[in-house]
Amino acid sequence: MHIANPGRLAGWLAVTLVLAFGLLLAPAVLAQETADRETATAVVGVTPDTWRLVRSGEVDANFRDSRADSNYNLVNASGEGWRQWRNRWVSPFGLIAIGGMALMIAIFYLLVGRKTLDEPRTGRLLLRWSVLTRALHWSVATLFILLALSGLNLLYGKFVFRPLFGDAIWGAMVSASKVAHNYLGPLFGVLLVVLLLKLLRHNLPSREDLTWFKKGGGLTGKGHVEAGFANAGEKVWYWLLATAGVAVILSGFVLDFPNFGQGRDTMQWANLIHALGALGLTAVALGHIYIGTLGTEGSFEGMKSGYVDESWAKEHHSLWYEEVKESAETPPAPAQAPPPEDGTLPQRPT
């Protein structure tokens, strides 16, 4: 095949390629041009000095975020400050507090062991916790554990469960934790306040508390430390719940109900207060749970059945024991099955 003018054909091919390449780049060029035109119209003469002013807040209304009647700058420095506080201080604090408390409990248990009763049980029981108090305690305790687990998952779970299970399962876990935390939180707050009001009269400070602290709750010195219905250690836990716990509740309500007009700065402060208080209470709660279960003989029985043995009351709450010892009672022996009418003894099952 003879080509009359190869140069002209090559020229047409080059023009065709240039036009095709131009058509491919046209959408991106037009988009960039549109974006630049919009930026030039919305923010005229933007310079580095302008953005420094935006960051500092020394600008007029043209440089402010107008969404949802917001008065915040387009560059919100407080948001970055909140992120730094959360990642550099709050999260490490939680790991140190909770992990440190768990380690201390394990070391204490290995070195000291369980605190058993010095005197044998008498079998005579004293009523310590009413049905209503126990119902409130177990409801608050259950909600506390669920909220602690869901909160820890929201704060640290992505570093543990996301690499193990992948994004799909991790996403479902986060969603479930968030829903549970948001809906159970207000219920926990109401029940905790009711429980605190019911136990207030037992947790007022007294002179015996100083002696209890001096003797380390009986860990140092000889003899038992006198205490009323609640000892000084239990009172400390009560007032932590009444202060830090109430702060966690109030900050949680601020976060849970953003429809009452609180601003972004308020939400950021509420988040930090909520996280710090909740992490600190979770760490102390580990000690409370240990003492009330594995650490002290007889303590869990009291919150389970409502009754404690005389020996337990005399050893741990001697002043309260002196007030109520006359009401101690011996539980009835379990009923035995009547013998058969023919007089034969029942055979033991094989």
From TrEMBL:
<dbReference type="InterPro" id="IPR016174">
    <property type="entry name" value="Di-haem_cyt_TM"/>
</dbReference>
<protein>
    <submittedName>
        <fullName>Formate dehydrogenase subunit gamma</fullName>
        <ecNumber>1.17.1.9</ecNumber>
    </submittedName>
</protein>
<keyword id="KW-0479">Metal-binding</keyword>
<dbReference type="GO" id="GO:0008863">
    <property type="term" value="F:formate dehydrogenase (NAD+) activity"/>
</dbReference>
<feature type="transmembrane region" description="Helical">
    <location>
        <begin position="275"/>
        <end position="295"/>
    </location>
</feature>
<keyword id="KW-0349">Heme</keyword>
<feature type="compositionally biased region" description="Pro residues">
    <location>
        <begin position="331"/>
        <end position="341"/>
    </location>
</feature>
<keyword id="KW-1003">Cell membrane</keyword>
<dbReference type="Pfam" id="PF01292">
    <property type="entry name" value="Ni_hydr_CYTB"/>
</dbReference>
<keyword id="KW-1133">Transmembrane helix</keyword>
<keyword id="KW-0560">Oxidoreductase</keyword>
<keyword id="KW-0732">Signal</keyword>
<feature type="transmembrane region" description="Helical">
    <location>
        <begin position="131"/>
        <end position="156"/>
    </location>
</feature>
<feature type="transmembrane region" description="Helical">
    <location>
        <begin position="183"/>
        <end position="200"/>
    </location>
</feature>
<dbReference type="InterPro" id="IPR011577">
    <property type="entry name" value="Cyt_b561_bac/Ni-Hgenase"/>
</dbReference>
<comment type="similarity">
    <text>Belongs to the formate dehydrogenase gamma subunit family.</text>
</comment>
<keyword id="KW-0812">Transmembrane</keyword>
<dbReference type="InterPro" id="IPR051817">
    <property type="entry name" value="FDH_cytochrome_b556_subunit"/>
</dbReference>
<feature type="region of interest" description="Disordered">
    <location>
        <begin position="323"/>
        <end position="350"/>
    </location>
</feature>
<feature type="transmembrane region" description="Helical">
    <location>
        <begin position="89"/>
        <end position="111"/>
    </location>
</feature>
<feature type="signal peptide">
    <location>
        <begin position="1"/>
        <end position="31"/>
    </location>
</feature>
<feature type="domain" description="Cytochrome b561 bacterial/Ni-hydrogenase">
    <location>
        <begin position="128"/>
        <end position="305"/>
    </location>
</feature>
<feature type="transmembrane region" description="Helical">
    <location>
        <begin position="236"/>
        <end position="255"/>
    </location>
</feature>
<dbReference type="InterPro" id="IPR006471">
    <property type="entry name" value="Formate_DH_gsu"/>
</dbReference>
<keyword id="KW-0813">Transport</keyword>
<keyword id="KW-0472">Membrane</keyword>
<keyword id="KW-0249">Electron transport</keyword>
<keyword id="KW-0408">Iron</keyword>
